[in-house]
Write a structure and sequence with these properties.
201 residues, alpha+beta, Alpha-Beta Plaits, 3-stranded mixed beta sheet, two-stranded antiparallel ribbon, 20% strand
């Protein structure tokens, strides 16, 4: 099994549901979003259009972040998911420099949304999941998957633009979408073998 995701750019409406649900699920610090939606305008008036590109860790087969990690903190977990062992991470950030997609974050020190009043109950409950001085990233919602649930960004996509499944199963929905609609990855020239595919708008 090789877990992967397909994102249909034709269906994405940039509602930020994926970004917000991911943040709520993981309780990440201010400014840290494992799932993001990039927006851009192209064309000239009056034929201007907006383009939306949801991004997250690509969980690459040949992941540069895993290759450069001196402590093996960045590693391939079961089913090809790239994850970080925070007990082994020394915060050198070599993985951040190696990642061609800029989807890793360094958690310098614990920050809260209302520092003058201390952590909210929610932040206090989640803060232990994010130790200081380590790198953090998306892991396809490992805790949700362990409970048989879909990643938060997939489960909460209002437009149904995200699909999740086994890339090695030719009969899975993700494999059929990639084959039938010409799914593509970002920066194929990097040769990393991403597990996140996109369908053209």
């Amino acid at each position: 099994m090789r877990l992967g995701m397909v994102i249909d750019l034709k269906r994405c409406i940039a509602c930020y549901g994926c970004q917000l649900s991911c943040k709520a699920e993981h309780g990440t610090p201010p400014g840290v979003f494992f799932a993001r939606v990039l927006k851009r305008e192209e064309g000239r008036y009056p034929t201007v259009r907006q383009l939306f590109l949801p991004v997250l860790c690509n969980h690459c087969d040949d992941a540069p972040c895993v290759e450069v990690c001196p402590t093996e903190a960045s590693h391939h977990a079961p089913h090809g998911v790239v994850d970080i062992d925070h007990d082994k991470c020394v915060g050198c950030r070599a993985c951040m420099m190696a990642c061609p997609y800029s989807n890793r974050y360094f958690h310098d020190e614990r920050q809260f949304y209302f520092p003058e009043s201390g952590p909210t109950l929610y932040e206090a409950a989640r803060s232990e999941r994010h130790p200081e001085r380590v790198v953090m990233k998306c892991n396809f919602c490992a805790e949700r998957r362990a409970d048989g649930k879909l990643p938060a960004c997939v489960a909460n996509c209002a437009a149904g633009a995200r699909y999740f499944g086994d890339l090695h199963d030719p009969n899975s929905e993700v494999s059929r979408l990639i084959k039938d609609r010409g799914g593509f990855t970002l920066h194929p020239e990097a040769g990393t073998g991403p597990a996140v595919y996109y369908l053209a708008p």
